[in-house]
Amino acid sequence: MSDLPSSLLAVLERATQPDRLGLLIQEALVLVQTVLEHLGEEAIAISFNGGKDCTVLLHIYAAVLYAHHDKSTPSHLRPTPSRSIKVPSAPTASPTSRPLSSSSETPATAPPPLPIPNPTPPSPPTSHPHATHHHPKSDSGSPYPPIRSIYITAPNPFPALDEFVLSCTKRYAMDLYRFGGGMKAALEEYLGCGGGNGVQGVLVGTRQGDPNGEVPILAYTDPAWPQFLRIHPILHWTYADIWDFLLELNVPYCVLYDIGYTSLGSTTNTLPNPLLLNPSSESGWDPAYKLQDASQERAGRH
């Protein structure tokens, strides 16, 4: 936690640079800030499973929260909401939107910032037989309130991925509920166990090209699903953009990406990407960021 504030400040500073990565970060910060201003911080959760895309999203979200809660953050680095972004209201009729993506990792000039309502703590959590709850310690030193989070595991998850998620709960002060089973059931249980009480929007690390990736930036789930506003701040990022962010800003990521894995599912259906096979490397595989053909990101998934 000690190095997190400087790391988050680096994200805010990087967003001021007018190159591709800087503009992508700035757009993501503005989208998150706009939804926070509209719904309130206490009504937002993040879907996090430890994949590279979710890791980028979590770091960006934490940067927005840091900018809002740390009063020493320079005003020119604070993301401001944009009125050009239309946050949809909860549907009253059958919408055409899809359910929350199950991806494995899966602006105009902004107006003056509007105040975000002071966050109120979620209702006290209640136990649930299918959930594992990780709550940050009260003395964690976090610069912002606990991040409401849900972790929906794949069947037969990688132990290294679980370990990385657990390390993130400590690093980012996440109030995280871990569920197995299907996504729809997990979301329903998340609401039912009290951890998701009052949640109206869920940040999702979906990118176009992912399964279920052809979605709007903001869209509600289908009426047959638990009702959330799905928020996709990195929807238009590429595989290369993700790695540019992680490597340049020195963001910790799951160690599996350093031994040839480029997309993470279950231990029973995921292998290192065959395009990264390198007998001369220590592990026998090149790291994920060396993949040249992004269209083969899921070549290790079966």
UniProtKB/TrEMBL annotation:
Listed Low complexity bias regions: 88-108
Cross-referenced InterPro entries: PAPS_reduct_dom, Rossmann-like_a/b/a_fold
CDD domains hit by this protein: FAD_synthase
Example of a GO biological process term: FAD biosynthetic process
Single GO MF descriptor: ATP binding
Catalytic reactions on record: FMN + ATP + H(+) = FAD + diphosphate
Domain Phosphoadenosine phosphosulphate reductase: 200-271
Keywords: ATP-binding, FAD, Flavoprotein, FMN, Nucleotide-binding, Nucleotidyltransferase, Transferase
Metabolic or biological pathway, per its Swiss-Prot or TrEMBL entry: Cofactor biosynthesis; FAD biosynthesis; FAD from FMN: step 1/1
A UniProt-annotated Pfam family: PAPS_reduct
Region ranges (Disordered): 71-146
Entry annotated with the keyword Endoplasmic reticulum: no
SUPFAM superfamilies xrefs: Adenine nucleotide alpha hydrolases-like
The protein's Enzyme Commission number: 2.7.7.2
Name assigned to this protein: FAD synthase
Organismal lineage: Eukaryota, Fungi, Dikarya, Basidiomycota, Agaricomycotina
